[in-house]
Design goal:
By secondary structure, the chain is mostly helical. Helix content is about 65%, strand content about 0%. It has helices spanning about 10-20, 25-35, 55-60, 70-85, 90-100, 100-110, 120-155. Helix 2 runs antiparallel to helix 7 (about 120-155). It is globular, with a radius of gyration of 17 Å.
Length: about 160
């Protein structure tokens, strides 16, 4: 499973990430943090399933949020849309997924580049945790590529 968290849904995560052009490990990391991979999870605000879809969003994507396969695919579609909408800014895409696009857009309008300062603590923790995991994955890939480059030079 790329650089994300290992789960019974590795294949679903990998297919959605590659199919929607998302960073490897992103969706599994989100699933871990959203629900600990529990397809029956429900938050106090009624977000449901492995990827914690709000009822209106689940309806928009035409899914049953307790179906992990459909939820993972829908999360991939949603993240691909958000990544495009926020011009490739994965932190903003993750924030919009967790906090809601409207909340994020109001924060950006009010605070500009300092939008994270007005995010709820739970959303800030979610965003920071995902970004650290992705940064760690990038650092590991850089080490692998550097090792391969050095090995190739020795040949």
């Amino acid at each position: 499973q790329g650089q994300g968290f290992d789960s019974p849904y590795n294949t679903d995560f990998q297919q959605a990430e590659s199919g929607y052009g998302l960073p490897s490990g992103l969706l599994s990391t989100m699933g871990y943090h959203e629900s600990r991979f529990n397809p029956n999870a429900e938050s106090p605000v009624h977000a449901k399933g492995i990827m914690q879809f709000m009822p209106a969003t689940a309806q928009e994507y035409g899914i049953d949020p307790s179906d992990p396969h459909a939820s993972i695919d829908a999360a991939g579609r949603k993240m691909a849309h958000l990544q495009e909408y926020y011009n490739g800014d994965i932190a903003k895409a993750v924030a919009a997924y967790n906090w809601g696009e409207g909340n994020l857009n109001r924060a950006i309008a009010a605070e500009g580049g300092n939008w994270m300062s007005v995010a709820p603590i739970a959303s800030s923790c979610f965003i920071n945790s995902l970004m650290k995991k992705l940064l760690h994955a990038c650092q590991q890939l850089t080490q692998i590529w550097t090792s391969l480059y050095r090995a190739k030079k020795r040949l």
